[in-house]
User: What shape does this take?
Amino acid sequence: MNHDEITELAELGQQLRVDSVRATAAAGSGHATSSMSAADLTAVLFARHLRYDFENPESPSNDRFILSKGHASPVLYAAYKAAGAITDDELMTFRTYGSRLDGHPTPRIPWVDVATGSLGQGLPVGVGMALTAKRLDRTDCRVWVMCGDSELAEGSIWEAAEQAGYDHLDNLTAIVDVNRLGQRGPTRHGHDLDAYARRFHAFGWHTIEVDGHDVGAIDAAYQEAASTAGEPTVILARTLKGKGVAATEDREGLHGKPLKDSEGAIRELGGVRNIRIQVQRPTGAEALARHEGRLELPRYDKGGDEVATRNAFGEALTALGSARGDVVTLDGEVGDSTRAEFFSKEHPDRYFEFFIAEQQLVAAAVGMAARGWTPYASTFAAFLTRAHDFIRMAAISDVAINLVGSHAGVEIGEDGPSQMGVEDLSMFRAIHKSTVLYPCDANQTARLTAEMAGLPGVSYLRTSRSGMPVIYGPDEEFHVGGSKVLRSGDADRVTVIGAGQTVHEALAAADVLAGEGVDVRVIDLYSVKPVDRRTLREAASATGCLLTVEDHHEEGGIGDAVLDAFHDGRPTPRLVRLAVRMMPGSGKPEELLRAAGIDAESIAAAVRLLVEEAVVR
Amino acid sequence: MNHDEITELAELGQQLRVDSVRATAAAGSGHATSSMSAADLTAVLFARHLRYDFENPESPSNDRFILSKGHASPVLYAAYKAAGAITDDELMTFRTYGSRLDGHPTPRIPWVDVATGSLGQGLPVGVGMALTAKRLDRTDCRVWVMCGDSELAEGSIWEAAEQAGYDHLDNLTAIVDVNRLGQRGPTRHGHDLDAYARRFHAFGWHTIEVDGHDVGAIDAAYQEAASTAGEPTVILARTLKGKGVAATEDREGLHGKPLKDSEGAIRELGGVRNIRIQVQRPTGAEALARHEGRLELPRYDKGGDEVATRNAFGEALTALGSARGDVVTLDGEVGDSTRAEFFSKEHPDRYFEFFIAEQQLVAAAVGMAARGWTPYASTFAAFLTRAHDFIRMAAISDVAINLVGSHAGVEIGEDGPSQMGVEDLSMFRAIHKSTVLYPCDANQTARLTAEMAGLPGVSYLRTSRSGMPVIYGPDEEFHVGGSKVLRSGDADRVTVIGAGQTVHEALAAADVLAGEGVDVRVIDLYSVKPVDRRTLREAASATGCLLTVEDHHEEGGIGDAVLDAFHDGRPTPRLVRLAVRMMPGSGKPEELLRAAGIDAESIAAAVRLLVEEAVVR
Assistant: This one.
């Protein structure tokens, strides 16, 4: 760059600072000083390196930019203004009700792919996008992720560092705005860039240390990153929080606040500018077309051999992958248990291994979904809790991801409580706009696995370890929001509602009770969210009393899902819940189902008690 | 060591292998090959380095041993047998119903401090114990953590590596059983010990590479670890999965299974032995005494200035710390927001900073609680989801930890959805034996903060960002499992139930409605779990209809908690729920409460509708 270009870039940096100060001052809140440290890094990226068509944000040829330090949103929005994507008037709506310029970026803005603001998530999501570009879209898209130094304390950053180094993601660049100050004071390593470089280098990254306020040096660093082959690059930029204003520069205690004297600060920064930049458009080819074909799901004989729902999931997913080229599968080093590995045999090019790193597993699914792919990520149901914060953020990102948790409930037996998912239904039900499915049979599992591919938002499928009877034919249909009434008659005295294993327990109990002259209705509530309100209300009005049975803790699962049908002030049925209330140990599945009081015998006993005590007719 | 000693140790290693093969064969399940790789490492540790009094496991002078690779439980139980702590008969109960020898270790065994089995947790918990020994108990206890190589992919390992390096925890030793094979195949780095050494070294650790089947070399490594000052040590041990049996040694596809020919394997390993070892007892001094004094909680004027509950928490916690020397505070780099930092001013020696690493934050609390301290760990409510798997495991560990989440709900305003805890009540309610508290006033917060210190299990306190009216006097008492009826009369037509901010909204709505001639009962449900069943049942029977209002998603929160009072088959009241059903953006708190339909006006409107439609009397 020549002297003029350098001056212009420095001016652009100042403009981003001024606009960050103005936006936060107008809002009366927001992270001015965190934006000021990142201004030069952002200016050089947008003006000279990012290849992005603001009119066609979905193009797979576009580079992607993720502001992992999402609290520095003012500098991002200021860059959008400089790029002509938003007006100055809109910039001044920052953080106001109804504005799309939220306190932390969300995809309500068309150029934001994923929500950030929970720190440590941008880099692992970026790994997912870099993998997408390299292995799926096969474009020369670059992924740029701007991190804060504080967030390098998050383990998820190192899951991403390991994955990116191992996969040689040279299309991924992490830019770390090392401004030395976290929210409440200095970070662990302050301005010791070497400390961070040693860590990234050990994980197989190319590292560059740079003065984050020297636009020429930043430009050279971006160029070096873009031309580095075989390794991801991290640019460690020494910056000053609140840079450019004496009252704020490198000072503690100013995190997350507008400047006290914003007018004076704007003057000190050289006043309001109106530099416009032309972000360069990508020139690369569009992504490869994806094949579409006829879906031929596996078919299981009704009444035939028992089949574990996890097996049916693996087989259905493989079939789905044959029919739809957009379906990708992500494993957390348990593909042999979840049966996701069936997919890898047929579609190795769309199978991704993340080893035991559930945060990276889910983050990669988010990144791939944000790029238009249909990911299925699976591990044990219990271990999806490891990624809860990523799942929560995925809902804010409004991406369509499919998560599958195997080894649900005490039914897994000998492995003991650490491996038993008994909180998963609760976790997933509380996610905004989520879908929660829990099949009890192989044909049902196959259908629901395929159904998930078309759903918006976060979808969850819960599978089980042991074989279960096949009670539905292969042509039976199952819809999200539906249920199946498996036993029903005019003399039903209670409705027993289960899902997964407890459907079979309920059927066995119904048979025993029928022999005793007590009729019960049995509902298979395979769609836990949304729940089949009509069927539940009919059952309530017909039998008066509902008995829910679930291989899950009593809070937030099937019992609560059933009540979802009755919370609008209409008459509520009597409800009795059977659920896992103890801390299970090891044992045979049937011993543990019994101990938890959710087996056929426990159901029958509960119904008998209700009949005897005349709680039911 | 002389030749005889070496031979004896090698023999002990073989005994641990044989007993692992025997236990898994008897159980018909379990991780034989993962135990066989770790046998020599375990043998040398127990025979020559661990200082532990099996008859006095709580002694702070004891070393601690955490089997982070919990699936290798057979080798741990075999070591217990060799140490005389359990009999061979008990060893053979492995994984059977009712045995304390679960598939993965839990504290049902007195010498197991914390449950393991969710990988990547042992090391961060060990960091908490090492900090306890160094800064709280001030004993020369060593903490030994045995990890698998696969679990080094978990980000939580690197949160721990960073914390331990930064805190110079030279009383912590990680032993990594690098057997090259994960569950479904080879690990990322196979037997490349250097790859791991580079990573740990970059994080400030002393590293030792060793042949994990050479007992002499292992012994030297443990000695070097114990004598290394100023840095934690990691021993990277090259081992073979299934070591000692040709059919299993270094073979894929044998994870988590008993050996096919266990009799032959036992012969090949030299048959059953009965070596007894005497684990050396600790000689160090006992821990320092902890002071106990009179608790003087802060007092707030009823009807005086508004006070944020997070402020009251910080002040109460500080007072509690003055009264009780066992109370410690853990921060995740947001102490200025959660107000935990108030504690640091008065009690810096019992204040621990974990930066932005929520898994390590909670894991350290678990480690400290397991050592008899009373930890309060706090961050934003939203970010506690990051540690969900650790909270789940804490319940299995049966430790008493106090977690505090600030910035709950849409009420935080401008920062936007990434910072809003709207799933936290659901997450915590579904934790086994948890307590969930949600105060609406400063005096109530102070009391509940103090109450938590005496509770078993996982306790959660939800605090809010903005100031709230002080509606209770400083002498009002609040009990876990209680509630407060704030408005009540014979003509009540609906009961409005809130907690936190929505209590104030409910009171305002009640005033408006009273002016319109509609009386409503108002309940402050500050104890979300356990819930005050009696009061709720009385209200239901008095008013027929319950209206819950919560700054939380509709699933798993206060609405569901209220129904917990009615799920034993008794008549269920009509229920209407107001909750956060949309995806919030930024805005002023009052704008967002309105948009979510949980403010006073929304409550009043809902009650009017119920009255008009004659749903209520």
In short: The mean pLDDT of chain B is 97.
